Amino acid sequence: MTVPNTDITSGPYTGNGLLDTYAYDFNITDDTEIRVFETTDLGVQTELTLTTDFTVSVTGDTGGTVTRVAGVLPSNYEWYMRSNVSPTQETAFASQGGFFPDVHEDAFDKVTTLVQQISDVLDRGIRLSDSDTSGATVTISAVSDPADRALKFLQFDAAGDITATSVVGDIGSYTVTEINTALAIVQRDGSGNFAAGTITADLVGDVVGNVTGNLTGNSAGVHTGDVTGDVTGNADTATLATTATLATTATLADTVTPPSAAQVIAGVENTLGLTAAAFVAAGQNLATPGYVTLPGGFILQWGIQNMLDNDEDTITLPLEYPTAHVAAWASPTDLISQGIGNWTIAAASPVSLTQVLVQYNCSATDTQDIQWFSIGY
């Protein structure tokens, strides 16, 4: 046979969830002479194993097919195949023996395929151009010990040769617009600061210097410095150090992280901001009768009861006290109509966590609205 195809790879093939067999169009004579790579929809690539993961149908110089043992190739998965001919010579020619063209041709075909495999590898590598006459070397001859190369960069030195170095050389003069673009390099200025204008990409890592511009994204780290710019995202006070200050010129477009109603009532959380909404959420009813729950859990309750002279009423509170009913008071709502010389007495006392007792007496027989007030926690 001949080797009409100069390509020793096939693919990539993208799966559609329907096919399990894909073609290759290079020359192999045995199913061991092909490598198959599978890449998942998450970009994870694995070299598959013959028989375990795939089988091969070999048809010589016309190519063949490869079948996935696990079934159809899932959608957005990829298959890539390449020649894997072993670099060996196993054909023996006897002296004064017969001439068999197919045997000679197969041997030459294998040599050709091996040359193609080497050429493909070279094409994938970094090398000097064919017209380069500088005599530069692309081997790292100055550093022979792998430990000396660890955690270093590959860099072209002043002679144009490749060397291993821990120092990044001058990247040249770039404008702010050129620096702040995709796949570009952000360079520090002469003072070691970043001066790249607006940074629109995500910044991952610790910032130990000052940020004097506007921060419009989310900042999830610990802040120990002053915030002097505009904060348009959420400011989580749990990450603000107690020594940090928030400048009066800063604006909070969104609310700080509020405590829950239970945290407001408990009164022990000191890392969250008490907003008006959080205060209300702790519990209040400003009607009559009504109540309000204060930070720390103290509760104030009030109401008005219409009573006859020499009367006593047990009133159910709007809100049950969780722990204790501390005290209660009562007074008439109208003393003027009683006239001078008449006396009016109103009193109240706790009965239980849910009730208050109100008493009313007057020297002049009268019906009166008695207002009562109760406190507890």
Could you name the key traits of this structure?
Immunoglobulin-like, alpha+beta, 377 residues, 17 strands, 26% strand, four-stranded antiparallel sheet, five-stranded antiparallel sheet, 3 domains
Residues in helix, %: 10-25%
Q: Which structural class is indicated by helix and strand composition?
A: alpha+beta
> How many helical elements?
5
Radius of gyration: 43 Å
Can you describe what's shown?
The chain is α+β, with helices and mostly antiparallel strands and 377 residues long. It folds into three domains: 1-125, no CATH class; 207-257, no CATH class; 285-376, Immunoglobulin-like. Helix content is 12%, strand content 26%. The strands form five sheets. A five-stranded antiparallel β-sheet has the order 10-11-12-17-14. Strands 1-7-3-4 form a four-stranded antiparallel β-sheet, with no helix packed on it. A hairpin with a 5-residue loop joins strand 11 (290-293) and strand 12. The longest helix is centred in the first third of the chain and has 24 residues, at 101-124. The chain is elongated and about 150 Å long.
Brief digest:
The chain has helices at residues 101-124, 146-149, 176-179, 261-266, 276-281, and strands at residues 9-14, 21-24, 34-39, 45-47, 54-58, 64-68, 78-83, 153-156, 162-165, 284-285, 290-293, 299-308, 311-316, 325-332, 344-350, 355-362, 367-376. It has 377 residues and is an alpha+beta fold. Mean pLDDT is 78; it is low at 241-254.
What topology does this entry show?
Layout (H helix, E strand, L loop, with lengths): L8 E6 L6 E4 L9 E6 L5 E3 L6 E5 L5 E5 L9 E6 L17 H24 L21 H4 L3 E4 L5 E4 L10 H4 L81 H6 L9 H6 L2 E2 L4 E4 L5 E10 L2 E6 L8 E8 L11 E7 L4 E8 L4 E10 L1
Antiparallel strand pairs: 1-7, 2-6, 3-4, 3-7, 5-6, 8-9, 10-11, 11-12, 12-17, 13-16, 14-17, 15-16
